Amino acid sequence: MGSLLLALGASLAWGVGDFFGPLVSRTLGSLRVIFWGQVGGVLAIALAVGVRGEGPRGWAVLFACAAALGGMVGLFAYYQGMVEGAMSVVAPIAGVSAVVPVIFGIATGDSPSGAQIAGIACALGGVALASIEHHEGSPRVAAGVGLALLAALGFGFYFPWMHAAGKVDFWWASLVFRSTALLLLVAVVSNRRTPLRLRPRDLLIAAAVGIADTFGNVLFAASSGHGLVSLTSVLASLYPVVTVLLAATVLHENVARWQKSGIVLTLTGVVLISF
Fold first, then answer.
1. What is the rounded distance in angstroms from the CA atom of residue 72 to the CA atom of residue 180?
2. Higher-confidence residue: 79 or 91?
3. CA–CA separation, 90 vs 195, rounded Å?
4. How many Cβ atoms are within 10 Å of 99's Cβ, its own excluded?
5. What is the per-residue pLDDT across 18-73, written as a single tens digit (0 to 9) for each?
6. Which residue range(s) make up the domain with 201?
7. Residue 47 in 3-state DSSP?
8. How far apart are CA 16 and CA 94, in angstroms?
9. Whose CA is closest to 19, among 179, 199, 248?
10. Is the CB of residue 155 less than 8 Å from the CB of residue 33?
11. S-S: 148 plus which of 90, 104, 132, 261, CB 3.0-4.6 Å?
12. In this model, does residue 191 exceed pLDDT 70?
């Protein structure tokens, strides 16, 4: 039960961070917000590991390097998708990342329940409904859907690798993940020559978003010590529920009726997969 509560805590932290991060990215730019968020996250987790004063408990914490690759692809696609499209559409589609660890779990010996199989079907059907909008009478793929699907793939790749690293030492796994992610971003920023300067207020917001995201990473990695990857990963994937609720409350986003049905069906699928 403790591992499941930690995974739910991760989804709450990610849901809050993944609302405010993309929100400020609409004016500041995704790459700048993600970069300074990673800086804030690295400083926070490095301080925690330093206070703990223990070395890593095994080399397998390096699996977090692979998790960082998937996580960064997913995060950038997610932020950019939120900038281009409606948060209440993009977030649930990205949450279909829950399907990937379930498939991984099946491949490594887990047996899915009937509810999980039904959940996968609901999630995929919901994505199809949420993805289509009508523009001047003609149906078309909604803005940000392609990036949301890329985010789902990236986040799905993150879960099994971070789960494996977190089982060894969740503090060091979180530090390795954040450090690798920051190094990847430094390489991208250097290649694209992206201006990074932010006003102090915006810098603090971006750093706070990164700390919330890092807190979610720590909670998920901690949940990996006693829970199956197919369960902890899916519960952690409930973060779109938080993001959608914030988008509806704060932004009052307006989406078509069938897209609302798709959003509900997608979220229902993600919940069913957790049973």
1. 10
2. 79
3. 27
4. 24
5. 888 888 888 888 888 999 999 999 999 999 999 988 888 889 999 999 999 999 99
6. 2-273
7. helix
8. 15
9. 248
10. no
11. 90
12. yes
235 with 8: CB under 8 angstroms? yes
β-bridge partners, 140: 133
CA 167, CA 181: separation in Å to the nearest integer? Answer: 20
Q: For residue 156, give both structure tokens.
A: 């799905």
Measured in degrees and rounded to the nearest 5, phi and psi for residue 98 equal -60, -25
| Tokens linked to 123 | 């999630």
Please check whether residue 266 is in contact with residue 127, taking contact to mean a CB–CB distance below 8 angstroms: yes
* E strand or H helix that includes residue 167: helix 145-168
Contact between residue 38 and residue 206 where contact means Cβ atoms under 8 Å apart: no
Tokens 């190094």 belong to 183
Beta bridge mates, 55: none
Q: What are the tens digits of pLDDT across the range 101-146?
A: 777 777 777 666 778 778 777 776 776 666 666 555 556 666 788 8
Query: Structure tokens of 131?
Result: 């993805």
Contact 86, 142 (CB under 8 A): yes
Task: Round the average pLDDT of the chain to a whole number and report it.
Answer: 81
Write down the pTM of the prediction: 0.80
